[in-house]
Specification:
The protein is mainly alpha-helical. It is built from 6 helices and 2 strands, in the order H-H-H-H-E-E-H-H.
């Protein structure tokens, strides 16, 4: 390496500035994670059971409760670390890019639209009963891929259809979970 190459590398390293450390961001993340997982845990206790499980058996609430309790414990740990230790450096992260907030808001809107469509369950169209989940899930995948920069239409269609089919077959058909 010549001297100009070393100087150019040093100059490019000086120009890069990572995101600043933020204790408030760490605490906010811990609080949001705790609220979300506590809500999940509460909702998992509300799952209706067709029949009570016998001794040594697992019912429909078991895994959601395990996930909820684990999430609450991890969220409490994250919040405790955020409150007791200095904020970690974020030099390896880039600063927020233009349009970043807009993408987050658009993602929330698209997800809300998916949930609203999914809540319809089934629709009767031209005398045919059509399940909404596969259509809504494929549209969700395609919309999110487009939002985050995917532009090849063939792979967009194939990926959206294959992921939707996989989820529908595994959960809807094999595990018989109503979608």
């Amino acid at each position: 390496m010549s001297t100009p190459d070393i100087a150019a590398d040093a100059a490019s390293e000086d120009e890069y500035e990572g995101a600043p450390a933020s204790r408030g961001l760490e605490i906010a993340f811990g609080v949001v994670a705790l609220a979300f997982t506590a809500g999940y845990l509460f909702l998992s206790t509300q799952i209706p059971l067709r029949r009570e499980a016998g001794p040594g058996q697992i019912d429909a609430r078991f895994w959601p409760l395990v996930i909820g309790v684990t999430g609450v414990v991890i969220a409490i740990a994250i919040l405790a670390v955020a409150l007791t230790r200095p904020a970690p450096t974020r030099e390896d992260l880039e600063r927020i890019q233009p349009g970043g907030y807009l993408r987050v808001i658009a993602t929330l809107v698209i997800t809300g639209a998916f949930i609203a469509l999914w809540s319809l369950g089934t629709v009767i169209l031209f005398g045919y009963r059509i399940e909404v989940f596969p259509v809504a899930a494929a549209l969700l995948m395609a919309a999110l891929m487009l939002l985050y920069g995917h532009r090849r239409w063939l792979s967009l269609v194939i990926y959206s259809a294959s992921v939707t089919a996989f989820v529908y077959v595994v959960f809807g058909m094999l595990l018989r979970i109503p979608l």
